[in-house]
Amino acid sequence: MKGLFLVEPVVALYAFSSFLIYPLVQQYVYRRLWQELTNTTYPVSDNTSRCATNGSNHSSYHEEVQRQASLFSLYTELFSTIPSLVVTLMLVAYSDRGGRKITIIMPLIGTLIYTLAFLTVSYFELNIYLLIGSSLLSSLFGGLGTFLGGCFAYIADLCEDGRQKTLRMAGLDMMIGLLAGVASISTGYFLRAAGFNWPFLTSALCQCLILLYAIFILEETVKKTPADAIILDDAPQPSALNQMTSGVYRMLTGASRRCKTVLVLLMLIFASFSFAYVGGITLMTLYELNEPLCWTEILIGYGSALSTTVFLISFVGVFGFTYCGVPQLLIVLIGILSVASGMVLVAFAKTTLLMFIVRVPMLLSIMPFPVLRSMMSKIISKSEQGALFAFLSFLDSLTSNVSAAVFNSVYAATVAWYPGFIFLLSAGLCVIPLFFLGVVGVIGVDVAEEVKKPEEDAVEDQNDNSPLIS
């Protein structure tokens, strides 16, 4: 059976299975902490506001549970960050020699372990702090950064044209938003009708299906040397760790000074924007559970679905702007301003209607990511795409995990006097990528022709079956 060069189904089903349980994770932890801290049953109601009129004692309960829930998220991020970063950097860089599929399959296994752990804790009502251990275990297989880094490198292998590469990378983001939106809408109704166990089980079954597709159907884009091939050179072959280091070194040194400057600035824009955006987004559900919104699981599902539509709208935005010939730096600028304006409005949203409306300005917030990836990919030679996306995945995972930890700790400290402060902080941090974007605009981005191409023959002579660690 001939394989397919279609990674989009993997991304789509992964998004569906992940966002089927993502809104439930914080809700499950929140409800368990409520029961443990208050010794009462969590208040479930069909009303849009469960807690607005229950007195000051009820308000103090919510403040304490909010604080403990944010600290729980902080501990989870701290324990899983370093293993995930190391594995991401090594696997995606190793994919230049060992193939892209390993960067897709390994995170899928880790996600399946994490989902099964949640199902076990929920079904047997075990201690919720076991979930921190499961997060650590799953991070040893890589994380979302590893998965997306492998998928984007896979697309880069298939696309020669710059416009095609930009649109197909934006298409991956669109698939994430489309399927995540469907999953988020169904989550609230699924939870109300069947409890927590069935959504976790459904997600695990979807992930098993993705694994089968990735292993047996998805075709490899990196051609590896046969295992029984005769190696004429008896010199020891470099490990993936050495390949990763040398790949990143060549990527940052094998070009003109202007080219390297632009590449570093684009990476700083990518990392600083990811830090500001992810930090605010990760606390949306917790903020909606707090007073005065006090959303039910149904409303949280709709809110999560509306948030994930940014992937779809951002794809349409990238496609439309690219088709009309809008400069890529301007597309990035629009996306950053979209996040900054939306976060400011979220900070002052105190009603359900406003909380839905403030998501509208953020509908273009994903546009900078595929555009920046495409811009950097065009600067780097084809033999260094894996090193580039390994480093980008490392930056993405690092900024996302550190951002979640920092923002959760700040939220725990400020929730008692002003919960919306965290979103003002997110908007304020958008000034940093805007500054770097201005510097790139002054320097100019037409540097692709200056890239120094490495000797491809030297790359091909390396053994594709070299060990992951020497």
UniProtKB/TrEMBL annotation:
<feature type="transmembrane region" description="Helical">
    <location>
        <begin position="5"/>
        <end position="25"/>
    </location>
</feature>
<feature type="transmembrane region" description="Helical">
    <location>
        <begin position="417"/>
        <end position="445"/>
    </location>
</feature>
<feature type="transmembrane region" description="Helical">
    <location>
        <begin position="72"/>
        <end position="92"/>
    </location>
</feature>
<dbReference type="Pfam" id="PF07690">
    <property type="entry name" value="MFS_1"/>
</dbReference>
<feature type="transmembrane region" description="Helical">
    <location>
        <begin position="167"/>
        <end position="190"/>
    </location>
</feature>
<feature type="transmembrane region" description="Helical">
    <location>
        <begin position="299"/>
        <end position="322"/>
    </location>
</feature>
<keyword id="KW-1133">Transmembrane helix</keyword>
<dbReference type="GO" id="GO:0034486">
    <property type="term" value="P:vacuolar transmembrane transport"/>
</dbReference>
<feature type="transmembrane region" description="Helical">
    <location>
        <begin position="104"/>
        <end position="124"/>
    </location>
</feature>
<dbReference type="GO" id="GO:0022857">
    <property type="term" value="F:transmembrane transporter activity"/>
</dbReference>
<feature type="transmembrane region" description="Helical">
    <location>
        <begin position="387"/>
        <end position="411"/>
    </location>
</feature>
<comment type="similarity">
    <text>Belongs to the major facilitator superfamily. SLC46A family.</text>
</comment>
<feature type="transmembrane region" description="Helical">
    <location>
        <begin position="130"/>
        <end position="155"/>
    </location>
</feature>
<keyword id="KW-0472">Membrane</keyword>
<feature type="transmembrane region" description="Helical">
    <location>
        <begin position="329"/>
        <end position="348"/>
    </location>
</feature>
<protein>
    <submittedName>
        <fullName>Solute carrier family 46 member 3</fullName>
    </submittedName>
</protein>
<dbReference type="InterPro" id="IPR011701">
    <property type="entry name" value="MFS"/>
</dbReference>
<feature type="transmembrane region" description="Helical">
    <location>
        <begin position="262"/>
        <end position="287"/>
    </location>
</feature>
<feature type="transmembrane region" description="Helical">
    <location>
        <begin position="196"/>
        <end position="218"/>
    </location>
</feature>
<feature type="transmembrane region" description="Helical">
    <location>
        <begin position="354"/>
        <end position="375"/>
    </location>
</feature>
<dbReference type="InterPro" id="IPR036259">
    <property type="entry name" value="MFS_trans_sf"/>
</dbReference>
<dbReference type="GO" id="GO:0005765">
    <property type="term" value="C:lysosomal membrane"/>
</dbReference>
<keyword id="KW-0812">Transmembrane</keyword>
